[in-house]
Design brief:
The complex is a heterodimer of chains A (115) and B (112).
Chain A: E1 3-7, E2 10-14, E3 19-26, E4 32-38, E5 44-50, E6 56-58, E7 64-68, E8 73-78, E9 87-94, E10 103-105, E11 109-114
Parallel strand pairs in A: 2-11
Antiparallel strand pairs in A: 1-3, 3-8, 4-5, 4-9, 6-7, 7-8, 9-10, 9-11
Chain B: E1 5-7, E2 10-13, E3 19-24, E4 31-37, E5 44-50, E6 53-56, E7 65-68, E8 75-79, E9 88-95, E10 102-103, E11 107-111
Classes of the chains: A mainly beta (115), B mainly beta (112).
Chain lengths: 115, 112
């Protein structure tokens, strides 16, 4: 079965500092991986995705993530945090084994940006 | 173009009432997913449609939960005899190619 683990349910960074949100996955087949952001009382917005090809993926709002098969990781980074980045972030893997491609989500990381 | 819409955005039900949650996917999207997001948790899969066919309902927590998509477009998630543990945000997502899902704003259900 596929699964996702997000280390750190809460992360605080200063404005302008590096953002690093960790995601590790488990999959017996090449995974499709996603990062979504959720603002209060809103749905999920896609930040970036990895399906095939280049392992360094660039997304919206200056975020990027690198797929590392050897480490089974897909950590999300941003060089300089902005106050507007404060939100909940979810890593997900798509269930390509069963064929539905349903998402399996991590438990989320709440990012707090300090002025 | 228009994204995924859900209605109502908020629903308060008394325990034991039946509720119906609606999802309007992006036009032309074949795949439709329902997820349940409990407070402080990540979304969890409930069910999946390909057009009008419900191909996976393995995530539905009990037989009180029922979903349909009769014409392959709009979908309704129905919960019968609601219980307090049903309180959550219900998210709908649609997809054209199953590689990327587009989410609606969710319906926040509170069962008193």
């Amino acid at each position: 079965a596929q699964s996702v683990t997000q280390l750190g349910s809460h992360v605080s960074v200063s404005e302008g500092a590096l953002v690093l949100l960790r995601c590790n996955y488990s999959s017996s087949v090449p995974p499709y991986l996603f990062w979504y952001v959720q603002y209060p009382n809103q749905g999920l917005q896609l930040l970036l995705k990895y399906t095939t090809g280049a392992t360094l993926v660039k997304g919206i709002n200056g975020f990027e993530a690198e797929f590392k098969k050897s480490e089974t990781s897909f950590h999300l980074t941003k060089p300089s945090a902005h106050m507007s980045d404060a939100a909940e972030y979810f890593c997900a893997v798509s269930d390509t084994i069963a064929g539905t491609y349903k998402y399996i989500f991590g438990t989320g990381t709440r990012l707090k940006v300090l002025a | 173009g228009a994204g995924v819409s859900q209605s109502p955005r908020y629903k308060v039900a008394k325990r034991g009432q039946d509720v119906a949650l609606r999802c309007d996917p992006i036009s032309g999207h074949v795949s439709l997913f329902w997820y349940q997001q409990a407070l402080g948790q990540g979304p969890e899969f409930l069910t999946y449609f390909q057009n009008e066919a419900q191909l996976d309902k393995s995530g539905l927590p009990s037989d009180r939960f029922f979903a349909e998509r009769p014409e392959g477009s709009v979908s309704t998630l129905k919960i019968q005899r609601t219980q307090q543990e049903d309180s959550a945000v219900y998210l709908c997502a649609s997809s054209a190619d199953r590689k990327e899902q587009f989410f609606g704003p969710g319906t926040r259900l509170t069962v008193l």
